[in-house]
Amino acid sequence: MEPMPTLSNSESSVAEFSPSARWSFGRQVCPQRFPANFADMCQFLVGHANTQQVHVIVRYDGRIDATHLQRALRMVVVAEPILGCRFVEHWYRPYWQRRDDHESMDLCTVVESVYPERELAEFLEAEMDPRVDPMIHVRVIRGDRDTLCYKMNHVAGDAPSLMKIIAMVSKNYLQGRTGPDVAPTVNLRSRDHSEVIRHFPISHRLRVIGSFLANQRKTRNLWLLKADQVGERRDGGHYYIRRLEPDVGVAAAKLAKRKRTTMTVVMLAVLYRTLRRHIGVTGEEGLGVGTTVDHRNYLPAKERELSPVANLSGPSRMFVPLPADASLEQVVEVINEQFKRSHKQRLLGLNYPGVILAMPVIRWLLLPVPFGWVHRLLKWGTRSQLRGLVRACGLANAGEMAPLFPEFDGVKVVDALATVSIYRAAGMGFFMSQFNGAVTISLGATESLAKPEVCELILDGISQELCSLEESSRPMPSASTEVPGQ
Questions:
Q1: Where do transmembrane segments lie in this chain (predicted)?
Q2: For residue 301, what is the enclosing H or E element?
């Protein structure tokens, strides 16, 4: 593995910034420390923060200029200072500490490989400690064509944050090829959910708290795996990725249009049917599926564009009280009704602890409680779940990714997909992404979450459900009339 060369002052205006007690960028002053918000702490409290990662894999039809890519990425780290920090696990309140080596740390490495897929799998599964390692890293796997993998620790930001980083890298790359680098504007806006909450009136905040409390009762209706579907190993872990043909995505989009809903709702229904019919998992009274909602959508448009790299997303749960033999369209209708109701009430995705804990009154009540106590209490309370058979299941949708990737010096992107973290227990999370209509589903898991054959069986079931949907959408061939004697 060969690290990219460090930029000199003559190569980039970004490298002219030098460390001091407080970082100065023109008129902007960047502090050495940033507070860790409740969403950051929630991601860390999940445990196994080293495997809490978000990835985007990009395949090109040629080779890109990795030196310019490194420069473009380094400018993003300057613009989004949280990426140049490390997470400090303080006993009272964790915080982000600016790294001393943020100008020289390896952000982009190039690896020549005759087995690019093996190299990619090793990079995806390698741990990333937020207390030691950089928050963002890019690997260029070089053969006849380049495969690029963006890798970000989830403690620093969510999937929309990584999409924003990629867009910024693309912009910086193209600008750097046509002219001199421009010193980036440092984003010092708050990363806390309070930025979202402050736009809500008191009545809306009370409804959010009420929705959160009501939702806690329903979370007991979780999926229950069988004992032979779960292994013992809680280390390591693998990614299971399934790419479907474009026609399958078109069929799912047609169903979404016919039901006046979204692709996310259709995929949640497919996931529900797969787990009930192909895996045979059971639950109490009703079974739930969840999806991740970007809370930036609650911000005004101008503030949404300026939102920094942060964890500003949260899960929204839908509960399906239907039997295993319910049709896909029935499941879509049940989930869509709940989805629309939450959206209309402006509660979609807001029954999330990070939102509740960011409210001023709750924050004031928790002020004397040390982080270390909460960490130990959470570990004690979830110990049985981490080694049990109960699972919460959900799916996040990255959407269509093609617009994120312009041509680099005539080198085009031929495929792109996203993956989520490697989960060890309790939560079974799937990630969906699209590239020019082709759908990719991914799952990261250790044996303690589900055995490899179970993970493969789930992805097989999702493929079968979607392929049957594609077949049912095909027009029936017209009957031909045979003329005797011809």
A1: none
A2: helix 301-306
